[in-house]
Amino acid sequence: MSVVVDGHLTVEQLVSVARGMEKVELHPEARQRINRCRALLEEKIKKNEIMYGVNTGIGELANVVLTPEQVERFQRYIVYSHAAGYGQPMPQEVVRGAMLSRISCHAHGHSGLRLEVVEKIVELLNKGVTPVVCEKGSVGACGDLSPMSQMALVLMGEGEAFYQGERWPAREALKKAGIEPVIFQARDGLATINGSNMITALGALEVDDAWRWLKNSEIVAAMTLEALNANMKAYDERVHKVRGYPGAITSAENIRKITAGSELLAQPGKKVQDAYSLRSVAQVVGAARDSWEWAKRMIEIELNGAADNPIFFPEEELVLTGANFQGVPQALALELLGTAITTVCVLSERRLNRLMNPNLNVGLPAFLTRGAGMFSGLMLSQYTSGALVCENRVLCTPAATGSIPAAADQEDFVSMGMTTALKTRQILDNAQAILAIEFIAAAQALDFRQPLKPSPAVEAARQAIRQYVAFLDEDRPLYNDINKMKEVVQRGEILAAVEKVTGPLA
Question: DSSP assignment of 427-491, as one string?
């Protein structure tokens, strides 16, 4: 089944195309809108009307008026000059997501490019040709000009592309896929590159990953709560409803579901109040959930908007210049998401400390090893968790406030949205490992609590972990366990095991 693009996309649809290789098609009404807008542009060209980026230079050079003979060549030169990125290739899923995001922008019929160009981007997606795009070089204003230019190069048969698992010169990749290059005409080049589509694609994929990660954070917290015989009054529905935050209400509900039927939590000896790292999980993860909701909303607004300059209004025969390419909305959303994830990570590391510390772990052996002294157990895994938390704190330093003027001060404010999106991706990658370490420690602690049984859902999580990481009977190198478990968390295997018991977690 194809994703039909009519200007209204969801994060889930983008993920299905970017990661799931779902086919794409343009809605007939989108085709009509694109053609109607193009007709307006061509009529205005015939009348010699001056239009930014069509028959003028760009940025500070907007006052340079091009001759009719220069107009077509200019679109090619825009792409050449703007393909100035640096670094390793962006993951193919991100580039595919950006291509879909750009198609969605054009589907509104306000961009002025030819239908043929949009159809060519659709063809690249459907035939699995993915442009090679450098990770770095976008400041997130005038859109992601540099990375999107590398996408545009491939449309012209230039640059490089991935196809069938290999990296090729673009012309060769197109030939193998049976795709003819396109020759840009007036407006085509700038309309292809002028939008914050790479930021949006990165953001959509991060939002998708963060959703599973947040549920994993509740699962691992539940495991630790059981291992430490926590006072579960803190998770009573009434506690959270009287405050009213929807994320906290949901998070507490999930934790109650996960811990239902626990023998461990039925034991006496509970504190009147636990430490914050045990008592505040629903409030902290709940706040992250609410932040996630806002971030997703911002990304989906961008996916469903006309992020271009100029904007053409065929019904009014009007062309307006503006700044709809600005990446600030996505940048601020992703700054918040990264901060939210990092805050939950801090809580995870503090729970890990309580599992390790014999003064805090309610009778468990020091560092979760039988032979403390001879063995160090999981001691050093906390170092790793602490290092990753520290790195995430550094990465939470806002990039969105770091504007550096460009283009002779014509572009005197930029969003740095790409920098934000890239560092949020790193935050999330570190966060998967932080949870992985707590999962390993919580499973070890639960094994020490036998023969008392955890809840069925927590037991399912423990068993999923034990498929990959054995009980630490005596010291062994831990890096393989941590790296392996990070991938398990990222793939969602523990979450899937738990939801087989609980049903879908909210």
Answer: HHHHHHHHHHHHHHHHHHHHHHTTTS---HHHHHHHHHHHTTS---SS----HHHHHHHHHHHHH
pLDDT-above-70 percentage for the chain = 100
455 and 470 both lie in a single domain: yes
Q: What is the DSSP secondary-structure string of 217-245?
A: HHHHHHHHHHHTT--GGGG-HHHHHTT--
Strands (DSSP E) found in 284-333:
311-313, 318-320
18 and 161 in a single domain? The answer is yes
DSSP letter assigned to residue 48: T
Q: What is the pLDDT of residues 229-286, one digit of tens each?
A: 999 999 999 999 999 999 999 999 999 999 999 999 999 989 999 999 999 999 999 9
Q: Which two tokens stand for residue 270?
A: 């509970």
Give the residue from 172, 195, 218 where a domain finishes.
Answer: 195
Per-residue pLDDT tens digits for 75-126 = 999 999 999 999 999 999 999 999 999 999 999 999 999 999 999 999 999 9
Whether 336 contacts 62, CB under 8 Å: no
Identify whether 331 is part of a domain.
no
The C-alpha atoms of residue 151 and residue 328 are separated, in whole angstroms, by 22
pTM for the whole structure: 0.96
Return the structure tokens found at 124: 């690249």
Active site residues: 52
- Measured CA to CA, the distance from residue 493 to residue 506 in angstroms comes to 17
326: CB partners within 8 A, 6+ apart: 140, 141, 196, 415
Residue 114, domain member (yes or no): yes
Residue 432 CB partners (closer than 8 Å, separation 6+): 213, 486, 489, 490
* Coil, strand or helix at 365: coil
Residue 135 lies in a domain: yes
